[in-house]
Design goal:
The complex is a heterotrimer of chains A (328), B (567) and C (293). Helices cover 37% and strands 19% of the residues of chain B. Chain B is built from 16 helices and 21 strands. In chain B, the strands form 5 sheets. In chain B, strands 1, 2, 6, 7, 8, 9 and 16 form a 7-stranded mixed β-sheet that branches. In chain B, strands 17-15-10-20-21 form a 5-stranded mixed β-sheet, covered by helices on one side. In chain B, strands 11-14-13-12 form a 4-stranded antiparallel β-sheet. Chain C has helices spanning 16-26, 46-50, 52-69, 78-90, 94-105, 120-128, 130-136, 172-179, 203-219, 230-238, 240-247, 258-266, 270-273, 283-288; strands spanning 2-6, 32-35, 73-75, 117-119, 145-148, 183-184, 224-227, 255-257. In chain C, strand 1 (2-6), helix 1 (16-26) and strand 2 form a beta-alpha-beta unit. In chain C, helix 3 packs across helix 5 (94-105), helix 6 crosses helix 7 (130-136) and helix 9 (203-219) packs across helix 11 (240-247). Classes of the chains: A alpha+beta (328), B alpha/beta (567), C alpha/beta (293). Chains in contact: A-B, A-C. At the A-B interface, helix 1, helix 2 and helix 3 of A face helix 3, helix 4, helix 10, helix 13 and helix 15 of B.
Chain lengths: 328, 567, 293
């Protein structure tokens, strides 16, 4: 089968380096992965094509890159499943990271973020003589997170990192979760405080790109949500970051409003999240609010109650009761 | 100039364990690796790590005996004793560092059965044990803030009168060449699987450290002992863990027979790897194959167990050959997997013998697959490789720190060493009219696969050796298409090819020399083990004019005399 | 075709023109809507953060109410669609469903599994058929350039949204736009996040996303963006001028709800579709589409 492998290239050795696309027409076999195709190009056609790759089996994490606009591990992506109607597959370097050469990106920012989450076990001391005892379920749950191979596919496609490079990002936060969920680690409250800051767990938009991009089923976003749940549950103070405070209150207010009213009331949510007396913030929202009112978009505060709202209140109360009971 | 007391080349498990030990002791240590540490090939170890834990009624002597027997009595028993005795504590160390490990019902570390051992003493994290340990080890490296030269490629060891004092290395990102001074250098650069095609090994496993040490004057030992893993995917050669058979998977032939009944009636699929690989090749040669393969059958294990304990091979088989192992058997065949041989060291990783029994390079240490201590002898037991890395990684660091504190830096001219390496690289870049790097690599690997496969003959090995020597000539004119400086992987591949050719030659020379069948070295023309003449290791040195010179050292026997090997 | 209609909180709150235009359009294209009485919020992903069990219980309740009506559910909100689809997958686990049914039992409700939840967008493509809509259109939107913007929850996770079984869902918006004669403006942002979920948490980032997507659409020459998600609409429309100020440029791209686009092709006028209720004026694009405004 013929394939047009179109590669976004970049050569920093040029005087005025600029990215450009180069197409390689090569013969590929049915079982070829995108990595097989790129290796074939590199070995037989153009030795100057730079990319990272090693294990060929989705375990070393070297070959994360974008194929047809989305991050994948090239060694896991079949060419045949990514060919367009006219037989083309587009390969670009991973996103959200500076390009060094061709498909090779600068991973220093990535590792700096991993470093920032204190990515090592901080157990209670003294250590036992034998192993720490830990339930197998907890360990099995962690295996899913430890499945992360640090390939950075999630970072490549993260929508927050696109606008704010300060965000710790899905890979580092999934790593962070591994310690909070590890019963051997004793520093949960310190950690949650650390992850609560600007660029931490509350800055995720829940867009799901990282879950879609992850080749190992780590589901980083779900881990971030689990960290939020743990932060709320443990009552970890939101540190100095306003966003964290808003994040807590947003989550709490949402639950409160829906539990009580059955439906969401945006105005109430904004007020409760930002705080009624948070004048600067409330004033910031005012023009939009007024504008909305002017366009008859503002829901009436006197809206009739939802039919069946008592049913919803009872369900919410019962769940809360069970939860509190379980906690006790 | 960059300067350290201890410099570790390679950042897989052996390298990181060494660096960690040095960092914890407060030594000025750095690691240098051609890939980011977590990309290292230790990742690929799937099944587990062996240790005899006494609080579970196990005895390290039994582990040692199984290892000696597995090695076909080629392993040095003093080294094997060290490894097996220290295994328990090292395993607990790993757990304390944060490795997850599957547990038993009481929350203690759980075990699975593995090949060549009479007792289940393999501790594991699903079938990603290597990855799970490697990433935790890197967590510790980050914790101790170890300096890492990420994506640097070492091209030569700086030596003077048989002593090593640093390396010359290229920073891949910029293409700049630097000298790094170190009182002690630890080689932990892994294996050489890419000398063969196909192989389970990653593309980075190119025998760099073995070649560097060899060129510097250290001997390579038992290089003919190349392990074929019984269950690798056809085509790509990607590994499917022995853990599958450990959990109870069957090997069946085209007639649906569990053929291991005929080859190892007691241990069946869990006989040692050399035995199982030979059985498979025999079945394939006798026509009981399906398109050159036999089948690994996991179906009866049930989906739940597979998804809990064999999730990775489930993923790999699905991705690479489109087989769902919960529903269908998957075609496999033996494939090149592991180099038992390597840089000769003592039990403390030294690449020279202080008592003068053999020569080598002072100040140079080695650990992990690149080294040959030798604990694996003619055949490594599954799940002993991870153990080897952490035990001898740590021990070599201890010895290297001792050496560094007793010695000064070696004096050398930075300009001369860096200039020399630059000239070598420039000569490669200036070549024209030769073959592409990949072409030579493939020709070499194919020749090695043909001549030094599971079954070997004098004639076949000689043909491979002649071919490799021809390739060494072709290598001198090999073409590097990328003439740039930044991230020139093309140039790196050429340099790696040079290393692989050294290794290939050594494997073939060793293979021709050993006129018996032992462990992974199975000769049709010398079908039996010959304890009378061959209870010895073959050491190969780079002699004058690049000739290979040989030396023999006896196998160390402490308590287990050679006996007939049956599973 | 009859559906149990799930309007979602926002179409009954901050984006009333979505509800209005849906009702205006539905009957004309053969969709009969019976609103689920007493429906509740799906949790929007936010409730799932703090109280996943309550989230699933509320969804199971909505499903049970629809089952009682004997109908499949139609949503008009990407977020509701996604959250319901994910809840639906979780509730296929019998043990878990039983646990939740235990709670519902006290309210005399039971969800037996297997409910269908479809966004109006998918219904256009899969049930009504683009040809049918084309045949109903009284005017072609020829020459109108529209940038699709899906909203995360109708795109990811693709498994819960059954993209494998319905591959056209990947390009459903483009299909509808093109079927009505307009030109779909391909844009990188179309499946990215609009920033709404973090509006009150990290407004700067949220607005940066708004500016990025609306700016891109404008740069590509789009007359408007079209979205099946009222939350995206709230952010892209309501906060567009603030976002533009933050990045120091002029952006002026009207944001249309999916049924407004369909209504335009059917010949409904601007006020009937609530086009006058947008913050960024839709006046120009309405004229271009030949609507009475």
């Amino acid at each position: 089968m013929q394939a047009k492998v179109s590669v976004r290239r970049f050569n920093p050795d040029e005087e005025q380096p600029k990215p450009y696309d180069q197409q390689y027409d090569i013969e590929v076999e049915e079982h070829f992965t995108v990595l097989d195709a790129l290796i074939k190009v590199r070995e037989e056609v153009d030795g100057s094509l730079a990319l990272r790759c090693s294990c060929r089996a989705a375990i070393c994490g070297s070959c994360a890159m974008r194929v047809n606009g989305h991050a994948v591990l090239a060694c896991k992506a079949r060419v045949s499943q990514h060919l367009s109607d006219d037989g083309e597959v587009r390969v670009e370097p991973a996103g959200n990271q500076p390009v060094i050469k061709d498909l090779v990106v600068d991973l220093e920012p990535f590792w700096n973020k991993v470093r920032a989450v204190e990515p090592y076990l901080q157990p209670s001391l003294p250590e036992p003589e034998a192993e720490y005892l830990a339930p197998n379920e907890v360990m099995l749950h962690l295996v899913d997170v430890m499945g992360c191979i640090m390939c950075g596919a999630c970072v490549s496609d993260c929508t927050v990192l696109e606008v704010d490079p300060n965000f710790l990002g899905p890979a580092a936060l999934a790593k962070a979760y591994r310690f909070v969920a590890d019963t051997r680690d004793e520093e949960d409250s310190k950690r949650l405080g650390l992850y609560n800051g600007y660029g931490g767990i509350w800055d995720c938009t829940r867009c799901g790109e990282c879950v879609a991009a992850c080749p190992k089923g780590v589901a980083p976003m779900d881990r971030i949500m689990a960290l939020r749940e743990k932060a709320i549950e443990s009552g970890t103070p939101p540190g100095g970051y306003d966003g964290a405070a808003y994040g807590y209150r947003h989550a709490e207010a949402f639950e409160e409003i829906v539990s009580h009213k059955g439906r969401l009331e945006e105005t109430m949510l904004v007020v409760k999240t930002l705080g009624m007396f948070n004048l600067p913030k409330m004033l910031g929202m005012l023009p939009v609010g007024l504008n909305a009112m002017f366009h008859r978009k503002m829901p009436s505060p006197f809206a009739p109650t939802v039919p069946g709202v008592n049913q919803i209140r009872r369900l919410a109360a019962r769940i809360k009761m069970n939860k509190d009971g379980a906690a006790r | 100039m960059y300067s350290h007391d201890v410099l570790v080349l390679g950042a897989g498990l052996a390298g990181m364990r060494a660096a960690l030990e040095a960092a914890r002791s407060g030594a000025n240590v750095a690691m240098l690796s051609k890939v980011y540490p977590v990309r290292s090939h230790s990742n690929a170890a799937q099944g587990g790590i062996n240790a005899a834990l006494t609080d579970r009624g196990d005895d390290w002597h039994e582990h040692a005996y199984d290892t000696v027997k597995g090695s076909d009595f080629l392993g040095d028993q003093d080294a094997i004793e060290v490894m097996c005795r220290e295994a328990g504590q090292e395993l607990i160390n790993l757990e304390h560092m944060g490795v997850i490990f599957n547990r038993d019902d009481e929350g203690r570390l759980g075990t699975r059965a593995f090949g060549g051992q009479r007792r289940a003493r393999t501790f594991f994290v699903a079938d990603i044990t290597g990855q799970a340990i490697l990433h935790v080890m890197y967590e510790q490296i980050l914790k101790y803030n170890v300096r890492v030269y990420d994506e640097w490629y070492a091209t030569t060891l700086i030596t003077d009168h048989g002593r090593c004092g640093g390396v010359v290395a290229m920073e891949m990102r910029t293409g700049e060449v630097h000298a790094i001074r170190a009182k002690a250098v630890i080689l932990a650069t892994g294996g050489l699987g890419r000398v063969f095609e196909p192989s389970t090994n990653a593309l980075i496993c190119t025998g760099d450290g073995m070649s560097l040490a060899y060129r510097a004057g250290a001997p390579l030992m038992d290089m003919e002992m190349v392990q074929y893993h019984p269950t690798t995917l056809k085509g790509s050669g990607v590994l499917l863990s022995e853990g599958a058979r450990g959990e109870g998977a069957y090997l069946i032939n085209s007639r649906g027979e569990r053929f291991m009944e005929r080859y190892a009636p007691n241990m069946m699929e869990l006989a040692s790897r050399d035995v199982v690989s030979r059985a498979e090749i025999t079945e394939i040669n006798e026509g009981n194959d399906i398109d050159g393969c036999v089948l690994l059958d996991c179906r009866h294990l049930g989906r739940a167990k597979i998804m809990e304990r064999l999730m990775y091979i489930h993923e790999v088989a699905m991705d690479l050959v489109g087989v769902d192992i919960t529903k269908d058997p998957v075609p496999i065949r033996p494939g090149v997997h592991y180099q038992m041989g390597g840089i000769k060291t003592d039990v403390d990783g030294r690449c020279w013998d202080p008592s003068g029994g053999w020569k080598g390079v002072e100040g140079l240490f080695a650990a992990g697959e690149t080294a040959c201590v030798s604990v694996h002898g003619g055949n490594r037991l599954g799940a002993n490789s991870l153990l080897d890395t952490v035990i001898f990684g740590r021990r070599s660091a201890e010895a290297a720190m001792d050496y560094a504190s007793a010695n000064n830096h070696l004096e050398f001219s930075e300009d001369n060493w860096v200039g020399g390496e630059k000239a070598t690289m420039q000569a490669l870049l200036d070549n024209s009219g030769g073959d592409l790097v990949a072409k030579v690599r493939l020709d070499m690997a194919t020749a090695m696969d043909e001549g030094l496969g599971v079954y070997r003959t004098e004639e076949g090995m000689q043909r491979a050796l002649d071919a490799v020597r021809g390739m060494k000539d072709r290598f001198k004119n090999v073409i590097v298409q990328d003439k740039g400086k930044a991230f020139n992987t093309n140039l790196i591949f050429a340099l790696e090819l040079g290393c692989m050719l050294d290794c290939a030659e050594a494997i073939a020379v060793g293979g021709i020399d050993r006129k018996e069948s032992r462990g992974a070295h199975s000769r049709l023309d010398y079908a039996a083990r010959d304890d009378e003449n061959w209870m010895k290791h073959i050491l190969l040195y780079q002699g004058p004019g690049d000739q290979v010179t040989k030396e023999y050292v006896p196998i160390v026997i402490t308590q287990w005399q050679p006996e007939e090997r049956k599973y | 075709m009859r559906y149990a209609f799930f309007p979602g909180c926002v179409s009954r709150g901050g984006a009333p023109e979505l509800y209005q235009s849906t009702i205006a359009v539905a009957g004309r294209i053969g969709i009969e809507l019976e609103e689920i009485e007493g429906w509740s919020c799906t949790g929007a992903g936010a409730l799932q953060e703090s109280n996943p069990l309550l989230g699933d219980t509320l969804n199971a309740r909505n499903f049970a109410l629809a089952q009682r009506m004997g109908l499949s559910i139609m949503t008009i909100c990407s977020t509701c669609q996604g959250v319901m689809a994910q809840a639906r997958v979780r509730l296929e686990d019998e043990e878990y469903r039983a646990q939740i049914n235990e709670l519902l039992a006290e309210e005399d409700l039971e969800y037996t599994g297997g409910i269908q939840v479809k966004h109006m967008l998918w219904i256009m493509v899969e049930d009504i058929g683009l040809d049918h809509i084309k045949s109903l259109a009284v005017k072609s939107l020829d020459g109108v350039f529209l940038a699709p913007f899906y909203g995360c929850y109708i795109v990811r996770p693709s498994a819960a949204l059954e993209y494998d079984a319905y591959p056209q869902r990947k390009i459903a918006l483009e299909l509808v736009i093109e079927a009505l004669g307009a030109t779909a403006v391909d844009n990188d942002g179309k499946t990215r996040c609009c920033g709404f979920p973090i509006l009150t948490i990290n407004e700067r980032n949220s607005l940066a996303m708004v500016a990025k997507h609306t700016g891109e659409a404008q740069d590509l020459g789009a007359d408007a963006m079209v979205t099946p998600c009222p939350l995206c609409h709230l952010n892209l429309d309501g906060f567009q001028s603030k976002a533009a100020r933050q990045v120091g440029r002029q952006i002026n791209v009207p944001i249309l709800h999916l049924p407004q686009l369909i209504g335009a092709a059917l010949g409904l006028d601007g006020p009937a579709l609530g086009l006058n209720r947008h913050i960024v004026s839709s006046f120009d694009v309405a004229l271009k589409m030949g609507l009475r405004v």
